[in-house]
Amino acid sequence: MMLTNIALRTVFRSSLSVLRESVRTPQTCCAALPSGHNVSKVSTTFPLPGQIRCYARTTKAKVAPPKSLVSDLTPSMLKMEYAAIPFAQTADDIVKRLLSLELASHSDKMALKTEQLIAKVQRDESDRSSVEVKIAILTGIIRNLEEHMFKHHKDKANKRRMLMAIDRRKKMLKNLRLERYDAFQKVCEQLEITYTFPPEYYRKATKRWIAKKAFCIKVFNEVQKMKAEKKLQEATDKKSPGQEMPSLEKKKLKN
C-alpha cells in the first residue's frame, strides 16, 4: 500500500508539470508514466483560447477651426502707429519691412483690426466712447478669444473672459435695439453679428415646486373670493341708503 501511494503521488506530480507546460505551449503532449507499473501512456491536447481582438475607438468628427480675425490683413500693410507717417511710405524696403505687419506681433495686428472694426460703426471720426464703438471692441476681443480657445480648450481663465465679454455685448445690443433700432441693424450688419433672443425662463418642476405652486394658486383663489365678497357687500350698502336714514333720525329724536 505504501508503494502504491508513492507511485500515485509521482504520477500526479508529473501530470501537473505536463499540464503547466502544455498551457504555455499548445501542442499534443504525452505524459510518460514511470516504468515498472502497468499503466499506458496518456495523450492530451490543450487548445489555447481564441485570438483577442482589440477594436479601435471610433474617431470623432473634426471641427473646422474658426476663421482667423487677422487673416485678411496683408503682410505689406504698415502698423497702426506708422500708417499716418509720410516717411514710412517713402522709406527703404528694409525699413518698410520692419514697420510692416510681416514682422509684427499678434497684438499689433489685433490693434489694427480693432481700428478697422471701429471705423465701420463709429458715428464720426472722433467717436471713441459710443455704444457702437464699445460693441466693436468687444467683438474683436471675443473673436480673438474664440480662436485661442479652439487651440487651447483647457484655458479656463480666457474662457471666463470670453463669456464675460459675450454677456456685456449682449446687454449693449439689447439696450441699443430698444433705443435706436436703426443703429442696432447697422452694427449687426457691419460686424456680422447674429443677434438671438434670450431663452425663456426655465425651472425644473420638482415635487416641492409643484406643491408650492398649487398652494400659491389656492391662496390666490381664496383672496380673490374674499375681495369679490367685499365688493358685493359694498355694492349692496350703496344701493340701500334709505334703510339707514330712519335709524339716524331715531337717534336724533332720542337726543
Task: Summarize the helices and strands and which ones pair or pack.
Layout: H1 2-24, E1 29-31, E2 42-44, H2 86-89, H3 93-99, H4 106-121, H5 131-151, H6 156-179, H7 181-191, H8 207-239, H9 244-254
Antiparallel strand pairs: 1-2
Which labels suit this protein?
255 residues; mainly alpha; Helix Hairpins; two-stranded antiparallel ribbon; 9 helices; 2 strands; 59% helix; 2% strand
What does this protein look like?
It is a single chain. With 255 residues, the protein is mainly α. Among the domains are: 8-44, no CATH class; 105-191, S15/NS1, RNA-binding (Helix Hairpins, Orthogonal Bundle), CATH 1.10.287.10. The protein is built from nine helices and two strands, in the order H-E-E-H-H-H-H-H-H-H-H. The chain has a two-stranded antiparallel ribbon. Helix 4 runs antiparallel to helix 5 (131-151) and helix 5 packs parallel to helix 7. The protein is flat and about 125 Å long. Residues 26-34 and 36-44 have low confidence and may be disordered.
